[in-house]
Amino acid sequence: MFDHPASYLNGTAPLNVTVTGYFSGLWAWSTKTKPPAQIFKISAMLLATLVCAIAVSGVHGVGVRPGQIKHLVTFGDSYTDVVATGDQGTAWPVYAAGYSKTALHPFARSGATCSNNITFRPFPPVFESQLPLYFTETGNGSLRLPPDETIYTLWIGTNDVGVDSLVTGSNNASIVDVAGCMVNWVRTLYASGARNFIMQNMIPLELTILYSANSYPNRFWAIERNTTDWSVLMTEMVLAGNMLTKLMLQALAPTLPGSHIAIFDSHSLIQDMFDHPALYLNGTAPLNVTGCWDSCVAPFGGGNLVCTVQNGTDRDSYLWADELHPSEQADRIIAREMALTLEGGTSKWSTWLN
């Protein structure tokens, strides 16, 4: 509207996007921060169009058949990496593949974002590294995956919205760009012949120590910051990103014939673990959802870390492994629910769109 006012504004005065004025202006007369009714009319029409499209397509589907899936292909960051594991133990894909008796093909890499063209970090991103490696292996025949028997998962976003990225204002991207990238992952793989997908949404990152209002300087960020600001911003970015991804996938699903797309609600599952730890955590120490079993405090500005580490089965009493990553016990729960989804069963945390 700002760039092309003639396409939107229809008043009798000269069109104006820099100062206030009714109908011919982008901003309302009484304030320089609120748009006038004309803008809301246009926004309402666009929103109604999206809602109608979703209503027509439907939001629930049948998903995969029991026993159909034989191969699990994973993309993402340290939450899913099976080598440089975020939980410092066995990553959830290994457990999920074992529970569901599927062959695991892991491509996720620690530190990744969806695309370094959107949110750059010096780690192997999904689009510029993980997908190219996958296409190389399927192209040269070293990886053969029957489309009907293979399911693809993506769990990304933590680094895209995190430190040295959106929360610190370190690039020009937005949460809209990140959500769009996630959905393009489905389009890209579908175009190559893939048909079954699970999108894992972002967890409530404000519950991690790093983004908590009660955070402390740590291995991930040792510079002074307003922890309340970070926590509020992270809450809003994650909620917005998850909803954008959901709406985009709901609109996309009916345009991909033969596809099966599920949303795995990692956000609600981790929130439930936080709210009801006794249902999930089973270690030998008192249950703990606000601390982590590998806690490292850093002096402001950097320096030697002062770490407190729990050992053995005490670790299974913690929701968090460190200031950012879910614990191995949390990952076992995620794997259990993912396995139900892979097997064509019912998990309260998964919703099939088609």
UniProtKB/TrEMBL annotation:
TM helices/strands, residue ranges: 12-30, 42-63
SUPFAM superfamilies, sorted: SGNH hydrolase
KW Cell membrane (keyword) present: no
InterPro entries: GDSL, GDSL_Est/Lipase, SGNH_hydro_sf
GO MF entry, a single one: hydrolase activity, acting on ester bonds
Keywords: Hydrolase, Membrane, Transmembrane, Transmembrane helix
Organism superkingdom: Eukaryota
Database matches in PANTHER family: GDSL LIPASE/ACYLHYDROLASE FAMILY PROTEIN (AFU_ORTHOLOGUE AFUA_4G14700), GDSL LIPASE_ACYLHYDROLASE FAMILY PROTEIN (AFU_ORTHOLOGUE AFUA_4G14700)
Annotated protein name in UniProt: Carbohydrate esterase family 16 protein
